[in-house]
Every structure is written in C-alpha cells, then in structure tokens.
C-alpha cells in the first residue's frame, strides 16, 4: 500500500565537496534499494552538484524551502523554477524552523504548497506542536489548524502529490523523540482529519512521516506503528553511518 519513505533534511550543513561526498556514498550504498523511497535535501548551493552525484541513482533530490512566487523582485529567495532547473522534484515546506525562527505563517506556507503543487513538485508539508502547546493539551488543535490552512485549495487529486511530516517541535534536534505510540496517535489523528477533509481512500493513501530525533536506534519501533509510513531525518541524515541504517531499518 503505502511505500516506506525516508527523507534526509541536511539543513544548513555541508559545503559542496562535503555534500557531493555524502551523496556519492549514499548513491552507491543504496544502488540496489527498491523497497524504501529515499530523498535527500541538501542546502541550495549544493543542489546542482548533488544532482550530478546522484545520476543513475533512485535517490530523489529535495529542497528545504521554496518561494511562493515563480520569479520577480524577491531578494534572497529561490523559486520553484530554479529548483526544477537544479533537478529538484521534492520540496519540504512549513518546516518548524521556517515557521518558528523565520516567522512563516500558515498563509505563506499554503501559498508555497499551492505553487509547488501547481508546478508538479512533490511536497512534504511539515506540521507539529511546540512543547508549550503539547503541555497545554492543544496538540491536535494545532496540527488541525496547520493541516487545514496548509492544504487550503488543494484538491483531492492534488493531495496525491503531498506527504505530511509530523514533527513535534520539542523533539527536533533535542534527542527527545516522541514515543512510537505518541507519534502513532498524532499520525492517526492526521489520517482521520485527511479523511474528513477529503475522503477515506485519500486518507488511506496519504504518506505520513515522523520527524524529530530519528536515529538508527529508534527507527524500527517507529516504523512498526500502523500510521507511521516513514521519517524526516535531520541530524542522523548528515552521515552515511547513521542515515543508511535508518533507510535499511527493516534489515
Ligand atoms: P532532527 O531533525 O532529526 O535533527 O531532530 C528533524 C527535522 O527537523 O526535520
């Protein structure tokens, strides 16, 4: 049914030579990988070079963000057209660092999602609550608001281009991962919500990744959960020694 999906978010790490070296190592180690869909999202400056390093590989090339406009006077932004030009097919949008550190609103995230879907990219839309929100018991409310706003105007056929990443903000880069049961409960809520926003078949087909301190030691238990279809991996995606065991969690 839903294909397992492991995505690496390199964040603001790696020069071009470092990125090429890691991408090359992953491409050769995963040359025969068939079961799991794999994506890596290097920083913008390394995209062209990583595309070349991935030539002939099944690893998908992703970007960590994109502008909501295709071109224009947007100093410092990168458009989806430029990303396509660099070989990118997947774009991560609404990451918590974009929302909380750079002030991206649900409205802006939705404009980006709509633009990326219209441009035929695959979108990984990130949602997730802060520690304060979890402690005050509003996790589902926060996730619902981000889902409804982020997916506004996205039609049911277009939802097939969208993957959801549930990333509790308190678990990102902190070493504190959500328990597999906690993650599964929110994933089940997200799937149920997709069922009410779209329909049961669309909800069943929706891939939902977990993100937040995923590593070789916890991936297997997370993947054993019914509603966890994969992972969006930050820190552990920066080295082949930690990313490959996450990709090969079932071996
Ligand atoms: P982490 O990051 O794995 O380092 O916690 C996950 C993410 O931010 O996507």
CATH superfamily: Aldolase class I
Q: Can you tell me the CATH topology?
A: TIM Barrel
Residue stretches low in confidence (pLDDT < 50, at least 5 long) are: none
Counted beta strands:
8
CATH class: Alpha Beta
Q: Which geometry do the CA atoms define?
A: globular
Side-by-side strand order of the widest sheet: 1-2-3-4-5-6-7-8
Task: Provide the β-strand percentage band.
Answer: 5-15%
Q: Write down the domain tally.
A: 1
The gyration radius over C-alpha positions equals 17 Å
List cofactors, ions and other ligands. Answer: 2-phosphoglycolic acid
Gap between N and C termini: 20 Å
Report the sheet with the most strands, covering strand number, pairing sense and barrel closure.
Answer: 8 strands, parallel, barrel
Helical content band: 40-55%
Number of helices: 12
Helices and strands, in order, run as: EHEHEHEHHEHHHEHHEHEH
Give the averaged pLDDT, no decimals.
97
